[in-house]
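Researcher: Go.
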Amino acid sequence: MSLDDRIAPDTEDEEKTVTETATAVHAPQRASGSARWLALGVIALAQLMVVLDATIVTISLPFAQRDLDISDGNRQWMLTAYTLIFGGLLLLGGRLADYLGRRRIFIVGLIGFASASALAGLAQTGAELFAGRALQGAFAALLAPAALSLLSVTFTEPGERATAFGVFAGISAGGAALGLIAGGALTEYASWRWCLLVNTPIALIALLGALAWVAKDVPAPRSGGYDVPGAVTVTLGLISIVYGFSRAADDGWLAGSTLALLVAGLALLVAFVAIERRSANPLLPLHIPGEINRGGAFLAALLIPIAMFAMFLFLSFYFQITLGYSALKAGFAFLPFPAGIAISAGVTSALLPKLGPRPLMLAGAVLGVVGLVLLAQLSFGDSFLAGVLPAQVLIALGMGPLFVGMQTVALHQVEEEDSGVASALLNAAQQVGGAVGTALLTTISVQVAKTFAHDNPGIDNLAARAAIHSYDVAFYVGAGFFLAAVPIIALMIRDRPENLIEGSEDGARLPVAV
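Model: Structure:
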């Protein structure tokens, strides 16, 4: 069926709404059932690669630091160079997907990600590694919003939609933990470099699949430019804030350099909002986060990863340094996370149409709080089974409802022409939260460890005890961020279950993810 046939008036359905017609214009050409599910596999593979790459280098970080002579103060940039550039450019990536075509940007992102991964994996200096990781983040900022918005317009039947987005949400929530497992295996049996190089063949396989099965879509009409001032201010603002947090570890929170970076970052973010209010073609139309349900989802998506990313980093150090695990064993020690997330995401997808997102997300946040508080009870001499596993299970069971719910509500009542930027904002919130959390909680843990060592100079196993104490404090702080998400979810996530499937009160189709 041609595009013209698909959008022409149907004589048997004279009451087709303007909204449905506009949706058809920008949607991909209708593919057969088997092709849609093959496309889901391609999109899911790309999303897994993007999410997985935020953590796959965590376990290999000590090996890369040694080989490339990276200082302790700079080693975190192997993680944050990716997540920060990813988060900072996601909004621009979402707009490019809307205006140039989701499939086209998806393909460009795959090619660029494959190339950047090769550059990072072959790096000979720390600067080359950080540059490669930043380029990975830039192309991931094209891939992620294009993938989610492609899914949003490819699967329109409620049953198919529930399955497709259940798969996508499970990958988004569990990919970070799977990255730790994959990173451990690759570091153990190959090299830390293969934690980066492995993306190149995977991206090329996904590229072939995209060319074969992902249907072409018609870009949204555009007038004006791409709001480059907005993209520059939001990216520089986020970099300034994260770098300010990292500098606090060495210079202190009240040092002039720390305060200057934090103030400059906040000023740039305020300037970004001002630019968006006045721009004729804004990078982020403020009505997207302005709707109360979506606003609640975006705030939750910012807060939850602050604890999650840092938790993965500290547990990786705990497993390898304190417990003496090999890279492979440390990776498999994270297995309860993806397993628990997969189970809870599946259960959530089944319950969501009946209960709605709010009670499920609240349950997930509470489980996260309890799990992190339990994890904060770690002490010297504890075993994995007694000290870590119960907390892992609780946190993993909470992640499924949170991520499925956030992805469902984030596209609440979003018009098709804005689906790319709305998808990007969700991903941006998560990546920025991860970058901020890594920098903030690392700084806190470093300072706590120094204080503990200073106050307890004669204690046995001082280094190990100081490290565990610093992790415990970081876990408590992380639990506080989970707790902060509870009132946001309770007060801002208000939509009824039937609206998530059937549409809004005015009858518009909702490109929501279930």
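Model: The CA atoms of residues 314 and 471 lie 6 Å apart.
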